[in-house]
Amino acid sequence: MNIPSNLKYSNDHEWVRVEDSIAVVGITDFAQSQLGDIVFVDIQTENETLAAGEVFGAIEAVKTVSDALMPVSGEIIEVNATLESAPELVNKDPYGEGWMIKIKMSNPEELNDLLDAEKYQEIAQ
Questions:
Q1: pLDDT for res 72
Q2: What is the DSSP string of the chain?
Q3: Which domains does the chain have, with CATH numbers?
């Protein structure tokens, strides 16, 4: 299982990479493997401001649908439009081309509440 050490992780299996105060968010390799083949990613929250823990979208796999939760609070400033036509990128490259949203964080200190790779490894089993 791939758990990059340069990312932060939520207990709900989202990852966060900070780029110039913008949080890039997706689901982890563990999460996509548990869901199975992803067939649709539904994110209708662009330009909305949501709190950490709120639902920002849904991930539909062949056998289930799962909510995607905000790991940090802020405004969703971009949605990965490529996932509309290629949702399988979440399975193939969850930490790269399979990213889901970009957040302008309203409280960057919330990053301190997230897990590092070592702590995430303990819950991703």
A1: 98
A2: ----TTSEE-TTSEEEEEETTEEEEEE-HHHHHHH-SEEEEE---TT-EE-TTSEEEEEEESS-EEEEE-SS-EEEEEE-THHHH-TTHHHH-TTTTT--EEEEES-GGGGGGSB-HHHHHHH--
A3: 8-106 (2.40.50.100)
111 pLDDT higher than 90: yes
End-to-end C-alpha distance for the chain, whole angstroms? 9
> Model confidence over 56-83: pLDDT tens digits?
999 999 989 999 999 999 999 999 999 9
Q: How many CB atoms lie within 10 A of CB 60?
A: 15
Q: What is the 3-state secondary structure (H, E, C) of 18-45?
A: EECCEEEEEECHHHHHHHCCEEEEECCC
